[in-house]
């Protein structure tokens, strides 16, 4: 897998601040330090994300929805600066909607991914955004595209991103096999996100999942007490 | 974008590395990769041994600056053998870990070295201790360290179970090291593993081509 969004680690923000009179959540930028994941299966894609948005050490939103609709069967998973990714997603949504009307048919996932890449690459110095674009179209079925910080574009069968993703590369490498079905993908995504949320301070809350196929989009939420659990040691 | 800071702040030869130790039913496995690099750009050794014996049934793995770690271990070995003579019995694993911790803590401003200590003694059986960079000492059932360890936290959390058999634990350790070496560019080479039980010590070396492969390679 390509090295997706290597987040500025939380210890890059000042831990011992000289300015302790002002709380860090009033100085720090809002960030979706996060864990996001997308998996292709035959007939669609499964995407998932945690739900924590932080400003410094304060959790600004513990039930964030990081799975953003771009078009009927195309979603993106956002990681990095919350403001940057929201802005880019809005712009791409608009561009894609317009393009779809011109074409008079549903847009391709590859088109959406390229629009993301165009914005992320052109403004790479100003932006901090790591995005996974995933969806279904008639031409190529389920597809996952990775647009990490810097503005590269690559298609992968499985992609993880965000600060929590580093902790689950090993788990993903050993547990993913080509040819999984939708339920296996959902289980794999939920397990990987749960493991990452346990280890990454910037990821947590609930797990939001969505599966996208020809029939449409099915969304679900796994609450804190129902998260997959592994042996505690 | 900022470089991902792992061992790149360490000057000189650094063991960007993956080390781990895990307790199983009746003993402990401790292991590491074998790569030493300078700043992540040049591999200065492909076959360095990072699992050092500090006493008959006590081994250490080092992470961080290679020079610092070697110096600390040399000093710790001599302290420990003296202590063992004074006590007229083999040292406890926690004694070895404590000696390392004292050195790391007292010299925390100059040193950049962390250790995993694993071994077997007659008082508490198999044990694993972690001495972190600043000199904290804690005991754990399973622990990982080094730059490559970030990639296998999920795998270790999911796969480690207490009271595994020796074979299960060896397979678990080999898999974990292989996965980390596959993702971390400053970890690699062969997997050095040492199995310590009441009966004795066994070295297992898994060369690069015999490491488990996972389907995306």
Automatic annotation (TrEMBL), chain A:
What is catalyzed by this enzyme?
Cleavage of peptide bonds with very broad specificity
Instruction: Fetch the InterPro entries from UniProt.
Output: Ntn_hydrolases_N, Pept_T1A_subB, Proteasome_bsu_CS, Proteasome_sua/b, Proteasome_suB-type
Query: Which GO biological process entries does UniProt record here?
Result: immune system process; proteolysis involved in protein catabolic process
Active-site feature positions: 34 (nucleophile)
Q: Which keywords does UniProt give here?
A: Cytoplasm, Hydrolase, Immunity, Nucleus, Protease, Proteasome, Threonine protease, Zymogen
Can you provide one Gene Ontology molecular function annotated for this UniProt record?
threonine-type endopeptidase activity
PROSITE patterns xrefs: PROTEASOME_BETA_1, PROTEASOME_BETA_2
Which superkingdom heads the taxonomic lineage of this protein's source? Eukaryota
Question: Which locations, inside or outside the cell, does it occupy?
Answer: Cytoplasm; Nucleus
User: What Gene Ontology cellular-component terms does the record carry?
Assistant: cytoplasm; nucleus; proteasome core complex
Describe, as the record does, how this protein assembles with itself and its partners. The 26S proteasome consists of a 20S proteasome core and two 19S regulatory subunits. The 20S proteasome core is composed of 28 subunits that are arranged in four stacked rings, resulting in a barrel-shaped structure. The two end rings are each formed by seven alpha subunits, and the two central rings are each formed by seven beta subunits. The catalytic chamber with the active sites is on the inside of the barrel. Component of the immunoproteasome, where it displaces the equivalent housekeeping subunit PSMB6.
Q: Which family does it belong to?
A: Belongs to the peptidase T1B family.
Which PANTHER family does the UniProt record give? METALLOPROTEASE TLDD, PROTEASOME SUBUNIT BETA
- Provide the function of this protein: The proteasome is a multicatalytic proteinase complex which is characterized by its ability to cleave peptides with Arg, Phe, Tyr, Leu, and Glu adjacent to the leaving group at neutral or slightly basic pH. The proteasome has an ATP-dependent proteolytic activity. This subunit is involved in antigen processing to generate class I binding peptides.
This one is known as Proteasome subunit beta
Q: Which organism is it from?
A: Poecilia mexicana
Which lineage ranks, top first, belong to the organism behind this chain? Eukaryota, Metazoa, Chordata, Craniata, Vertebrata
From TrEMBL, chain B:
Identify which residues the record assigns to the active site: 17
Q: Keyword set for this entry?
A: Cytoplasm, Hydrolase, Protease, Proteasome, Threonine protease
What protein am I looking at? proteasome endopeptidase complex
Function, in words: The proteasome is a multicatalytic proteinase complex which is characterized by its ability to cleave peptides with Arg, Phe, Tyr, Leu, and Glu adjacent to the leaving group at neutral or slightly basic pH. The proteasome has an ATP-dependent proteolytic activity. This subunit is involved in antigen processing to generate class I binding peptides.
Which GO terms fall under molecular function for this chain's record? Answer: threonine-type endopeptidase activity
Q: Which GO BP annotation is one of this protein's?
A: proteolysis involved in protein catabolic process
Name the reaction it catalyses.
Cleavage of peptide bonds with very broad specificity
Q: Which GO terms describe its cellular component?
A: cytoplasm; nucleus; proteasome core complex, beta-subunit complex
Q: PROSITE patterns per the record?
A: PROTEASOME_BETA_2
The record's EC number reads: 3.4.25.1
- Any keyword Cytoplasm? yes
The UniProt entry, under InterPro entries, shows: Ntn_hydrolases_N, Pept_T1A_subB, Proteasome_sua/b, Proteasome_suB-type
């Amino acid at each position: 897998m390509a090295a997706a969004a290597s987040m500025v680690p939380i210890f890059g923000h000042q831990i011992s601040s000289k300015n302790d009179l002002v709380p860090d959540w009033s100085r720090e930028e809002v960030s979706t330090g996060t864990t996001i994941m997308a998996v292709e299966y035959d007939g669609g894609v499964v995407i998932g994300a945690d739900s924590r948005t932080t400003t410094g050490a304060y959790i600004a939103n513990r039930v964030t929805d990081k799975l953003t609709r771009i078009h009927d069967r195309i979603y993106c998973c956002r990681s990095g600066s919350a403001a940057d990714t929201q802005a880019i997603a809005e712009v791409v949504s608009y561009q894609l909607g317009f393009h779809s009307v011109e074409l008079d048919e549903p847009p391709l996932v590859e088109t959406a991914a390229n629009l993301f890449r165009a914005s992320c690459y052109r403004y790479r110095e100003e932006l901090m955004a790591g995005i996974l674009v995933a969806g279904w179209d008639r031409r190529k079925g389920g597809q996952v595209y990775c647009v990490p910080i810097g503005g590269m574009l690559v298609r992968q069968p499985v992609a993880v991103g965000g600060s929590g993703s580093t902790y689950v590369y090993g788990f993903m490498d050993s547990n993913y096999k080509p040819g999984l079905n939708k339920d296996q993908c959902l289980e794999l995504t939920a397990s990987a996100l749960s493991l990452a949320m346990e280890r990454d301070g910037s990821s947590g809350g609930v797990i939001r999942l969505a599966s996208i196929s020809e029939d449409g989009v099915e969304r679900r939420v796994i609450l804190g007490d129902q998260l997959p659990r592994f042996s505690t040691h | 974008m900022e470089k991902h800071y792992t061992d790149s702040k360490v000057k000189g030869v650094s063991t960007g590395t993956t080390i781990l130790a895990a307790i199983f039913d009746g003993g402990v496995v401790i292991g590491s990769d074998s790569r030493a690099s300078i700043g992540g750009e040049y591999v200065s050794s492909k076959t360095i041994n990072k699992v050092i014996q500090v006493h008959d049934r006590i081994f250490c793995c080092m992470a961080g600056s290679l020079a610092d770690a070697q110096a600390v271990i040399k000093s710790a070995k001599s302290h420990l053998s003296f202590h063992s003579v004074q006590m007229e019995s083999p040292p406890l694993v926690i004694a070895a870990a404590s000696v390392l911790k004292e050195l790391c803590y007292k010299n925390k401003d100059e040193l950049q070295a962390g250790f995993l200590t694993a071994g077997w003694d007659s008082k508490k059986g198999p044990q694993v201790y972690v001495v972190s960079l600043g000199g904290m000492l804690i005991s754990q059932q399973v622990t990982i360290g080094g730059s490559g360890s970030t990639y296998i936290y999920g795998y270790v959390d999911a796969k480690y179970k207490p009271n595994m058999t020796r074979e299960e634990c060896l397979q678990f350790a080999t898999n974990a090291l292989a996965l980390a070496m596959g993702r971390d560019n400053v970890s690699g080479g062969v997997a050095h593993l040492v199995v310590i039980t009441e009966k004795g010590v066994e070295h297992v070396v898994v060369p690069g081509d015999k490491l488990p492969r996972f389907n995306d390679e």
